[in-house]
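Limitations

Structures in this collection are predictions, not experimental determinations, and the ligand pose is part of the prediction. Treat each record accordingly. The example that follows, with zinc ion as the small molecule, is included so readers can see exactly what is and is not provided: the inputs are given verbatim, and the output is the predicted complex.
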Amino acid sequence: MRATVFHAPGDVRIETVPDPRIEAPTDAVVRVTYACICGSDLWFYRGINANWERGWRTGHEFMGVVEAVGAEVTTVKAGDVVLAPFSFSCGACEFCRKGVHTSCVNGGYWGGDEHDGGQGEAVRVPRADGTLVVVPESVSNDTALLRAAVPLTDVMSTGHHAAVSAGVRRGGTVAVVGDGAVGLCGVLAAARLGAERIFALGHHDDRLQIAKAFGATDLVTARGDEAIAAVLDATDGGAEAVLECVGAQSSMDLAIGIARPGGIVGYVGVPAQVEAVDVRRMFSNNIALHGGVAPARAYIPELLADVAAGRLDPSPVLDMTVGLDGVPEGYAAMDGRTATKVLVSLTS
Ligand SMILES: [Zn+2]
Ligand SMILES: [Zn+2]
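Predicted complex:
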């Protein structure tokens, strides 16, 4: 089969790799129909995550059709259309049962040197029963609903995790730091949970317009202290729920800076560049920091039900579509910020 392979920072290529096959009785093989390129893929693409080696496979967001299952797989069968969260998990260990599937003792992540990546024609899925979620026919027969479902593999589930972690409540005031795909999905998640006032903080006009369409009531384009002052002023002391959706030092400082006393910062941005958090401000104002890597598998069934019902559509974050051969071009577009998030369509 053909799949995307990392060569060096700025250099990913489509190459022929071994076909996946059932290796363990708990495996499934999924033929990929849609995949995405993620903002977090840019960490290795830009060489910021320097652990990546030539030959590693890329992509952790995909859905597709089950082609084969191992003898012990009971919840999916050949022909099912399925969504995969960005990590695989057994569904049965202590942490899966607590809803922290990303800490599964039998789990792991797609791609790298050990597993197939999502940005390819097919994927061997370990622990298929605990990992895959079957997509109802009403969604799989409708291209628009399928496009709405793909972001549940990561960014929509991650935005929802930020909102849940920050304690977003009906009628509450929320601030979302970051206007990337996760931040935009955070706005959508906060609106879905009933927040009344939603501040979106970012620097890209086109993306902030999506935030507005997703339910943001106030757009803030200022940076640093100016942005903090703007939110504190407009909320008379800060937002009770803040979603940190970037993972940079400046965004973490901003998130803690605009949290209301007694409030919660839900952080989901991969903290690749966070050196420190302002514990003193958190201490003196009883501000909590809650969140981490999103256990997407825990949220997909609930979010997928809303997609199927036509109540949830994060697909506007997908502003560029390529085929498998266009994946390198998609990375370059996201790196150059001419695309927010790239959909890879393998259907033809
Ligand atoms: Zn991702
Ligand atoms: Zn587990």
